[in-house]
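Sequence only, no structure available. Ideas?
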Amino acid sequence: MMIRNIILYCCIGLGMLLASCTNDMKNLQELSIRKKYPQGEAFDFKLVYTDSTKVVAVLSSVLNMDFTNQQMPYSEFPEGVKLEFYDANRHKNTVEAKYGIIYPTADMVELRDSVVLTTYDGKQLRSPQLFWDQKEDWIFTDREFTFTDHQKGTVTKGIGMDFDKQFSTVKAHKTTGVLAVEEK
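Reply:
I predicted one. Tokens follow.
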């Protein structure tokens, strides 16, 4: 009789356990997705880079999310980023984008969404995406771009461009544009 009661209680418990389990696919998917959480967040972020007491660059953003705790570490600027950087002659150049991400182990910066790079002398590059290889100090995009040089009176459009930080070496691909030519 006692064994029969134990078996009865076990069957009731097992039945309750099985009845309470559901196979909700959405819940299973949510459980299986590993969420990434930043190890830190900075609001109204401003970082000044210096070299031998000289300001080299100023990085600012409304929000910086630090994911350097991930397997592939990165730092994200989901609400936009602005970088002011100075050349050897202390001329200020700026680049702004609505989104930015820095991969420190790869020495790579990616800027997306309305990227505008403006040099001290008024040259301007617009593109939806821009990469900066920090190790090679090389900037490039494989997306469409518009490059304007007001001093020369030129507007160049194309798809794909790469150049050094000083715009002294520029390689533009698949280009069209307007060029002012002097009469002689």
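The mean pLDDT is 82.
Hope that gets you unstuck.
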